[in-house]
Every structure is written in C-alpha cells, then in structure tokens.
Amino acid sequence: MNIFRLSGDMLHLISFLVLMYRMRGQRSCRGVSLKSQILFLIVFCCRYLDLFFSFVSLYNTMMKIFFISATATIVYWMLTKYRSSYDMDNDKLHGDGSFMGHLPPHGVLGYIIVPCFLLALIWNEGFEAFEILWAFSIYLEAVAILPQLFMLQKTKEGEAFTLLYIFCVGAYRGLYIINWIYRYFTEKHYWQPLVWVSGVVQTLLYADFFYYYWIALRDGAKFQLPG
Amino acid sequence: SYQNSGKDEL
C-alpha cells in the first residue's frame, strides 16, 4: 500500500458517498446514469468474487464489501424511491432499440458488455472462470463511465454533486496510474499489462471531462460542455 | 502470486 493507491481508494470511497448524499439530499437521481451504475455493479460483483476464496487484507475485504453494497444501494434507489426522477431519455445509448432488432438492454449489451466479455476470453491471466470474469471486470470498469459521460454530453451541463462524483472517480483512476508507476519501481516482479492498458484507457476517457471541469472551476463559471 | 498482481488492488 502506498499513498497514491490509498488516496485513490479514498477518492473512490468518497465518490459513492457524494452520489448517495446528493440523491438523498435532493430526493432525486436526475443526471445520474442508471446504465453506468448497473455496469459498475456488474464490475464489482465479477471482480470481487475472490471475497469467497482469497483474503488479501481486512482493508481490501471491507472496501470490496462497501463498493458492492454502495453501488447496489444506488441502483436500488434509482429503481425504487427515486425512479420518477430518473432521466431515461438522456440515458439512452446510440444503439438502443436497434441492436439485432430487439434484445433487451440493446446498446449497453451490444456495445459495452459483449465486447468486454469477448476481449476477456482473448486476453486474460488464465483460461478459467474466475480469471475470465476478473479480466472482464477490468475491461468493463474501463468503459462503465461512458453512459454517464454520454448523459452529460446530452444535457451539456451537470449538477454540482454529479460533477463532483465524476471528478472523484476520474481522479481515483489517475492516482491508480501513479500507484502503478510507484509499484513498478519499488516492487519486484510487479508487472500487469492487462490492468495498465485498461486503466490508461479508462483514465483517458475522463480527459475531456477534466478539462471542462477545470475551466469551470477556474473561471468560477457553470460547467458547460461545448457543442 | 496474488500479492504481487493486480488482484491485490481494488
């Protein structure tokens, strides 16, 4: 454990709290992508299957349980008490309604879940169920924020807490990259190209957002995407 | 090993 990873994890933890605080405070989930939240829930459920068979540390175990339960709570709230404020029209992917005619989650399944799973079958750290699901979770996490970013793109502006949430998740990913560099130089045999490549892709997806978020903060102006 | 792989991260 180093300071970069710890800070990254803390930002990740805070991101859930920000989102939940915001939803409860405003009694609304407007501007939050249910698709991204469901994808994150799939990510955590697949990756943390090792809760059942391998123990790393109490810290890891508690964080894993928190990530799964917080995301499950957010999804549950969006489907129940805050359902009426869910902005479904702006949470549609380009392919929704057209993927092979009529398969249910359309865009998300066709453009995000299936490609990630196929990639996991090709590039993994071992051809067995857990390894494939683990690789799948890494690839899926890399792109899980896309529906949220598309939603922001459609509405052009976001509510302060939603923006803070995206910022926290993006910053957590950025800190993980620094953590990897640190580990590479301080640990022997630390080599994980699969995670590094996905992590860099994931962080790049936030670049645009960070740029406009920074402009808004610098100018004390409202966050507004161009176009 | 597990401790030295990406699997000891979150």
UniProtKB/TrEMBL annotation, chain A:
Pfam families: ER_lumen_recept
InterPro entries with a match to the protein in the record: ER_ret_rcpt (IPR000133)
Membrane topology term: Multi-pass membrane protein
Keywords tagged on the record: Endoplasmic reticulum, ER-Golgi transport, Membrane, Protein transport, Receptor, Transmembrane, Transmembrane helix, Transport
Keyword Endoplasmic reticulum: yes
Listed GO MF terms: ER retention sequence binding
Superkingdom field: Eukaryota
GO cellular component: endoplasmic reticulum membrane
GO biological process: protein retention in ER lumen; protein transport; vesicle-mediated transport
Family in the record: Belongs to the ERD2 family.
Name of protein: ER lumen protein-retaining receptor
Annotated organism of origin: Guillardia theta (strain CCMP2712)
